[in-house]
Amino acid sequence: MPPIKKEINPDLCTGCSACTVSCPVAQAAPEFPGPKIAGPVSERFRLSGVAGAERISYCSNCKNCDIACPRGVPVSLMTMAALNGQDNGIRPSLNNLILANGPAMARVAGIFPHFLVKFAMESRLSRLILDGLGIDKRSPLPVFAGEYFPDVFKKRKKFKSDKKVVLFSGCFINFYDPETGTDFVDILEKAGYEVILPEGLVCCGLPMAANGFAGKAAKNAAVNYGILKKYCGEGIPVTALCPSCALMLTREYGEMFPEAVSGEPLAVADACSFIASLMEKGELEAREGNIGGMSFIYHAPCHLRAAGDGLPGYELLKRLAGDAVKNASAGCCGIAGSYGFKKGKYEIGIKVGRALFDEVKKSGASLAVSECGTCRVQITGGTGVRAAHPVSVVKKFTVLSGFTR
Amino acid sequence: MNGKIYDNIVIGAGMAGLLNAVFSASSGKSVKLITAGAGSLTIGSGLIDLLGYSTVGGILKDPFDGFSTLEAGHPYLKCGRAAIDKAVRAFLDICDKRGFPYLPANGCRFVPTAMGRLKPSFLVPPSMDMESLRGAETVYVAGVDGMKDFSPEIICGAFSSMEYFKCKRFEPLSVSLPELGAAGFGSMEAARFMDSEEGCSAFIDRLKGKINTGCGMIIPPILGSKPGLWVYERVKSELNAEICESAVIPPAVTGYRLRSMLMGFLGDLGVELAENARVISAEVKNGRCISVSTAGPGGVKSHRADNFTVASGGFYGGGLTSAAGRVWESVFGLPVKTPDGWASADFSERQNYSGFGVSVNDRLNACDILGKPVYENVYFAGRIIAGADSPYEHSGNGVALATSYLAASLL
Amino acid sequence: MRDFKGIADTWFDVVIIGGGVTGAGILRDLSMRGLKTVLFEKSDLASGTSSRFHGLLHSGARYAVTDPEAAAECASENAVLNRIAKYAVEPSGGMFVRTKNDDRDFEERWKEGCSASGVFFERISAGEAREMEPGLTSDTESAYLVKDCAVDGFRLVWQNVLSAGFYGGDFRTYAEVACIEHSGGKVTGVRVRDAVSGEEISVPCGCVVNATGPWSAHTAKLVGAHIGIKPDKGALLAFNHRFCSRVVNRLRMPSDGDIFVPHGSVTIFGTTSSDASGPDDSQPSDAEARYLAGLAGEIFPEIESHRILRAFAGTRPLIDLDHAHLGRDASRNFIITDHEKDGLSGFITIFGGKLTTYRLMAEKISDIVCGKFFITKKCRTAEEELLPSMSQSLADRAKKVFPPSGAELIYARLGPLFETALKKAEADPRRRELLCECEFVTLAEYETAAALDTSVSLSDIRRRTRMGMGTCQGSFCGFRALVSVFGMGLNRERGGAEILLPFLNERWKGMKPAMWGLQMPEAELMKNIYSSSLNISGGQPE
What is the pLDDT of residues A119-178, one digit of tens each? Predict the structure, then answer.
């Protein structure tokens, strides 16, 4: 009999099925029993030592179940905890190992010259090798940027100020998209903030937890929590560019690794939410710039919606670009972090994302905008439309004026 | 941190919350909708019952006939007939505008249910109106092979023995849609399949030849998952039959359609939406609410507005919380009157707890025993309001419509 | 079985009245010894006291101070049942916990009592106890491990009856014994009424055993005999999930609300002791449910965050020989009365006792009955398993159609009928789908149980499968079960509501007393589904 874990209580569930109706994976893959059965229903059995439903590895951890649940049942948490369980007979496979360790792989790639890495990742041969390891050869893997964002940041001219802000840039920015990181730092400095990129931060741990390596994730949680707690304690705000990282650092650390993160949960502001607050405080002024006839289609990442703070990036864009921005409101893109890269899940991811792809194509927008890096990769992969983080749009297409004293 | 002051912050995304947001945003107000969960429209029928049963017994022909028997304190009596009429018109206007028209009502309309009962409702989409089968002598009750939670035999058995249907013949029928798999699917999956050209034609083709022209059909709610009538119109015209979808156990495709329609409208109206956000507290000062707070990754966040509409539902929706012997409203902690005997021993009977809720005045403010408002800029709408046993009297969604409209018009 | 005509005017050596665990145990014992025996139950098997208790298989520790004899019996029978009834017993182990509010002296007496009765116990520290059971109160001062287990009353009864069937033992449910016929001071037979059709048959026999528990006095009255029995009501709460891993007892003088039994997917907590208005008094009051919930909080302080699924009650057949002993103070020991002393030979009543020692009781009375028939065969019920282990070939086949963990669960619930369900699932993939999601009941299993002639109502199917006993309490599976009944053509002229409403009302009966907290959302949902959406009790327009 497994010992009872106090944190997981399935009693909030009424079995109403609201989660299953909203689950994009259950719609795309009938093999998946759906979040209600994978989560709270099975949880009661897992507590009695009987493995719950099979095929719970179909869960993409997109959290639409949590969003739909009227009762506040931690549906996705239960499923993730079960995926990480030792007693359920599910062992993570090799593809999960690779995807869980995206940062480590990227670091290895980072020591090679950019063009070589690019070649390696895009060559048919290396994709075949990855395919053999369980990364679907058709999936739109991001390309390693060649330069690590913290290194880019270090090379920047130092900007000193009394006003400080900590940036948790996250793996996607660090390895694949340093430009977005730079855009954000530019904006923050314009508003008179000195940006701190603390040494020693590691991957937030979400890819590890979602692929069955909770032990590793817990270690990362302890490291990040230790570093960021210090800043929070000093009243220095912490921001993150990736909604999934933000959700992990705050809500999920406490829920998943209560022993690793004793004390107050971290407060991590979404990048756009932070920009909006600077504008409200009058520290930053952004006027509609010359968007040159461009139009934007916005996609709300599921993990941003799950954060419970609305869509600050979309609201910001609306303020700056007005009618030129439209919310796709078409649900999950299907990538769900690393899910859509996996063999056997790639098709599901594409199927899930189809409504969004259609909406993006139909809009005729010149640029798709979304806070989440892998969402952007998926959208571009599915539609051919370029995609950017809202901070990049703010940076490039609006006139910013800071009020640095 | 968020400094914007909205005209109206709506708490809850069930029928009352969505409608209140739509009504207030349509009249030009800046609106933010905060919700924990997708709301009960994903599990309810999406039908607007106004008053199906008189409290003194019996199905009502016209809901308004039953108003004289409503007990003092019933939300309808707070709203008044005029506001209810206006709310009904406003709702029908929205439906028309968004391409998903509901039928105008002149008295109760009846909807067949999977239990083999007629459900007295008021505003219903054309695809669920039993009246459309009036002329049909033969009514096929068609299920889909392997589909969960629907049995033509239950409906046929019950309807065949009803005096009301004595001139009709009910026949069970089964349609095969192997594209959906052998089993394990419900009406939602079937409806999503019917959204596609492929699904729609498959359904029509498999039925052709099995039914007589001019017959009637009762089917599970599978005529598309999206708001709109095109699947219904097409199936109806190609089969040359009158069709009626039935009310079923959750998940409810028909409620989901209405929800999608309203959500789409909210987006177009520029209503800001914060999902997965539970309001944990409210800041009140001098009889007014200044802000409500939610907890998110960025810490506790306060949301300011001139007005607040609480449409947080009952026990299921989370608007009411209870412990042994005690019930309170979840956001403001308002006490809720609870007469002894919360539930009746008989499941079918009236249940006292169904009427538990916040006592309001005729401006839908929570009020004390003397009718004095507790917070003058906080309005309540929907199930959270005390005084309606909606499952028993069949007033579900009707109270939500009337009160959400009135609350919006008072802003 | 429900075929009455087939046994009309057929001779049986022994007729047993009462389909609880005692009657089922006697049926098995007598059948194994070669007596032609039939059991009559007025309702469904295990629908009375045998399923209306906390599901604790005592280690004996609870009676160490108050009833040393019972303690010793429990200790040895616990070991026997662990051996023969592995598909009904969960070897969870148990714990006794003394909080700072409980009497210290009792702890010493308890330890002495255990030692004297041969009841195993092992001291652990309060810290260890809370590590093993994280929800335990911080008021825990001392703790002991014992050999308590959880036992499923439904399964235990069924497995006894089915095992008896293997030796020729027969039974009928919804079979009310209307009259015990006798002549010349000797029992000659019984008249049995089919409670569904109302028809009566005669069954001649040589001996009648009254094993009707709290109904014993009523049964004895059929022949004008008096039985000193006092039905005593015990109320219990069923919680939605397991919040402890083993049985948790409060270490104090046995009192109200001091036993938690994790049981399958739920936890049962009880019990109380109060005068029952009669043996059918199985409805706990709202006040009793609240009282119990308060007591539960003394051991598991976070109990408010746990949902109570339902409150239920059973009546115990407590011995009241001289009216001096009352309630919990009355002996838990059993008494066998041979009514030969009242001038009627061939009529024996057994009452008292407890579920843990049912087998021993059955053995004792079977010895007496066998004596009357000059049968010298020894009791073998302690040696042979109730239900043999699932064969490897079945397990291999089951793996292909049922979830790996599900197969064992279904085998435990269905026993010998497992293969029927398996074949259904093998033949048709649709039958592999879950009908009851909360308790993992597949359509194949449900239909196997529904097809039995003993399944007169949906509640009978529920007792066999646990369908409707989980989180949703029938909100979803109730309707699904109805659809299946119609699909199988078992509705027999009855309308949907006629079949479903009694089931919903029965579920409601248990939810109602515990209607607060996390129960309310479920109640509201259930009521809205059936009344608002489906208008289940609606009439027709004019």
Answer: 445 566 566 666 666 777 777 777 777 789 999 999 999 999 999 999 999 999 999 999
User: C80 touching A, CB under 8 A?
Assistant: no
Instruction: Report how far residue C144's alpha carbon sits from residue A171's, in angstroms, rounded to the nearest whole number.
Output: 50
- Low-confidence spans in chain C with pLDDT less than 50: 323-331
Q: Give the 3-state DSSP-derived string for C310-324, with helices as H, strands as E and coil as C.
A: EEEEEEEEEECCCCC
Position A50 confidence tier, pLDDT thresholds 50, 70, 90: confident
Q: Which residue's structure tokens are 């890819």?
A: A207
**Superfamily for domain range A282-402:** AF0625-like (3.40.50.10700)
Determine, for residues B58 and C482 on separate chains, whether the beta-carbon distance falls below 8 Å: no
**CATH second-level architecture of B5-100+257-409?**
3-Layer(bba) Sandwich (3.50)
* Interacting residues of B323 by C-beta distance below 8 A, sequence separation 6+: C304, C516, C517
Domain spans of chain B, in order of start: 5-100+257-409, 137-240
The closest CB to that of B348, out of C515, C525, C537, belongs to C537
pLDDT tens column, C474-499: 999 999 999 999 999 999 889 999 99
Cα of A32 to nearest chain B Cα, Å? 11
Q: What's the pTM?
A: 0.94
CB within 8 Å: C475 and A2: no
Using CA atoms of A360, A362, A365, A367 in order, give the dihedral in degrees to the nearest 10.
20
DSSP one-letter string for C240-273: SS---SSEEEE-SSS-SS-EEEEETTEEEEE---
Complex ipTM > 0.95: yes
CATH of domain C5-48+154-228+332-372: 3.50.50.60
Q: Are strands C274-275 and C229-239 parallel, antiparallel or unpaired?
A: antiparallel
Closest partner residue to C512 among B146, B326, B345, by Cβ? B345
Shortest alpha-carbon distance between residue C91 and chain A (Å): 10
**Per-residue pLDDT for A337 more than 50?**
yes
Homologous superfamily (CATH) of C88-151+231-315 is D-Amino Acid Oxidase, subunit A, domain 2 (3.30.9.10)
**pLDDT for position B299:** 81
